[in-house]
Amino acid sequence: MPELPEVETARSLIADEALSRLIVDVDDSDTFVCRPYSPGELRDALIGRTLTAAHRRGKAMWVETSEVGGSQVTGPDLGIHLGMSGRIVVRSSGGQAAEGGGPRRRDAQPRKAEWDRFTLTFADGGSLVLLDKRRLGRVRLNPDIDALGPDAATVTPAEFRNLITKGSIAVKARLLDQSKIAGVGNLLADEILWKAKVSPAARTGSLQRKDADRLYRALKAAVESATAKGGVHTGDVIAARHPSGTCPRCGAEMRHGTVGGRSTWWCSREQAAEVQSG
Ligand SMILES: [Zn+2]
Asked: How far apart are CA 41 and CA 34, in angstroms?
């Protein structure tokens, strides 16, 4: 599932390749991905405009659009959510495709035309496509991002310390709470906790300042590394998240349980604390 680093690769692709290209056609016929709009509504809202800036907070991404014709009024923000497996494909005027949104699976089936859930066609003959086999992505205008916490890539140490030490829930559940901090999904949370040597089940209220600061450094390092390497699957502990897996740092057995409602792996020695399974 795309987490912050995967969405960032999609955002930067749009920022690098899709801005300032005139939109001459829009395929918004997938009424599920484009709900609640009817076919043609997104087309009418976007045609004749260009994309002008690509933004992201957590896993939410949106693109500003230009005015149309002689109007002084800029267009709506185009929100594109990648869902569970969506990818962005931008084609040049010559038909060359670049992709963002995380790694392509090696065992990927040949792509089918219907996986193109939403397409902007540019005047130069190129396009921007939301490719989404599972159809869990979503396109909408002016998405509401106010409910999201600060972005995990830009949260400040003070903001982070405050949000990670309040209340008394499992620290992993807090990391996954998009309203508190936006962009951390299941794999990134396990990587951060492992890097910081903090038990996923540790209570937020029990964390000391030094724990919070270690978690902050782990968050920054994990996000930067995953963004540079192309996705959260590249994390140091990710390959050890399986039965008989061993900690890549100390060699101890990895443990498994459910924390924050999600499948969780942690080092039995360095992240030792009671975790209730189930
Ligand atoms: Zn270990």
From this structure: 9
